Amino acid sequence: MKILVINCGSSSLKYQLLDMADETLLAKGLCERIGIDGHLTHKPQNGKPVFNEDVAMPTHTEAIAAVLDKLTSAEYGVVSSMKEIGAVGHRVVHGGEKFAASVRIDASVMDAIAECIPLAPLHNPANITGIEACRAVMGDVPQVAVFDTAFHQSMPGKAFTYAIPYEYYTDLKVRRYGFHGTSHRYVARRAAEMLGKPLDALKLISCHMGNGSSICAIDGGKSVDTSMGFTPIAGLPMGTRCGDIDVSILEYLAANTGKDVKELTNILNKKSGVLGVSGVSSDFRDLDAAAAQGNERARLALEMFQYAVAKTVGGYVAAMNGVDGIIFTAGVGENSADTRAAICRYLGYLGVEISDERNAKRGEDTFISTDGSRVPVMVIPTNEELVIARDTRDIVEGK
Ligand code: AMP
Question: Of 4, 69, 119, 212, which one's alpha carbon is 20 to 30 angstroms from that of 358?
Fold first, then answer.
């Protein structure tokens, strides 16, 4: 079965077409500036040329139509007709407490995704738009929703409850949800394969470190705690998000800057994190370069990030009463050997020992710990699209 994976934002749409016979990527691409003017980058993986041009996209429906046109065209295509596409899998950001697993989309699922809009007011409406656009262009092709939050629904109450009046949870659904669930699930399964042990017998800690970062404690294949919270701002300091801070700072800043809570929350989301501290960049490559040239605030931002990751990993070792493997993934986790090494230096008390030679490898699933390391440490490039495609296939085939 060939499966189209869609990740829809408010003005963008990322896609991949996968052949699930052997899980190969057939094509991938990106629609940008939807609703403004429109631009499509389409990359077939079969040797045909890349398409990289403006295409009018007044709405997501024209964007999906343009993607299907390229996927089936003689010049840029990878399939002969739309009929070859057996199903569509959508990344949906928030499933609230309604979805603990992926699900085939029908009218009641659409209603439930819409009910979660207050929890993800920027993301869920875009996801709904993407699903509706696919239905408009592709008709009755089965569609599946894969939620970023679903994997974390296994967290126990002691991990997801905030210490605030309980009715804010019962009435307004304020609790820790966690995000990046598809990524944490993918790398945990892959780590079990690499370790040669069943996933349900392992205690794993997955460090997804990209522009957004979160850590997940995975006991027996189930998420038991994670660092992001009610929204993705919580936990670690990130590219531009502040991570955990004292909530009283909001009132203090409102009183002393004249900004309201909305403006300040925007600053905490978009101008904070390593960008805010360094004043240099949200990109860890720029920070590495600036720190190497002696920029003290860039160095501080990097140190804060590494320290926060190490503290969270330590907390999750305690939460699970042990750890059988630590995983690094996403942009920083997969590419920054220095960041990985700095974090692992904090973990010597666990018996973690890194091999410099192994840690220098890039772009493949690999152990970076020495053979003698008491806890194995792995780098596993994440592949959220593959998880979405696998779930979609399994659900459509009734597995
Ligand atoms: P992601 O959100 O997973 O796409 O990760 C994006 C981030 O990965 C970028 O903002 C960079 O900070 C980081 N990144 C990518 N390549 C490298 C690298 N070679 N060294 C350090 N950081 C990197």
Answer: 212
Domain with CATH 3.30.420.40 in the chain: 2-147, 199-384
Over residues 221-266, the pLDDT tens digits come to 999 999 999 999 999 999 999 999 999 999 999 999 999 999 999 9
pLDDT tens by residue, 42-84? 999 999 999 999 999 999 999 999 999 999 999 999 999 999 9
Ligand 1: residue of 332, 340, 361 to mutate (most ligand atoms within 8 A of CB) is 332
CA distances to 132, 179, 311, 344 from 315, in Å: 42, 18, 6, 15
CA dist 128 and 125 (Å) reads 5
CATH code of the region 2-147: 3.30.420.40
CA distance 1 to 372: 43
For the cut 90, the answer to whether the pLDDT of residue 122 exceeds it is no
Contact 328 CB / ligand 1 (< 6 Å): no
Query: pLDDT class for 395, splitting at 50, 70, 90?
Result: very high
Q: Say yes or no: CB of residue 229 within 6 Å of ligand 1.
A: no
The two tokens of residue 330 are 């996403």
**Beta-strand runs (E) in 203-349:** 203-209, 213-219, 222-226, 325-329
Give the pLDDT mean for 92-118.
96
Instruction: Give 3-state DSSP helix, strand, coil % of the chain, rounded to 5.
Output: 45, 20, 35
The DSSP code sequence of 46-114 is SSPPPEEEE---SSHHHHHHHHHHHHH-TTT-SSS-GGGEEEEEEEES--TTT-SS-EE--HHHHHHHH
Q: Nearest-CA neighbor of 84 among 15, 20, 7, 41?
A: 20
Please work out whether the CB of residue 83 comes within 6 Å of at least one atom of ligand 1. no
Q: How confident is the model at residue 38 (pLDDT cuts 50, 70, 90)?
A: very high
The pLDDT of residue 399 is 81
Q: Is 335 in the pocket of ligand 1 (CB under 6 A)?
A: yes
Asked if 280 and 295 count as a contact pair (C-beta separation under 8 A), the reply is: yes
pLDDT single digits (tens) 277-299: 999 999 999 999 999 999 999 99
- On average, the pLDDT of the chain sits at 97
Predicted pLDDT of residue 74: 95
- Please state which CATH class domain 199-384 belongs to: alpha beta
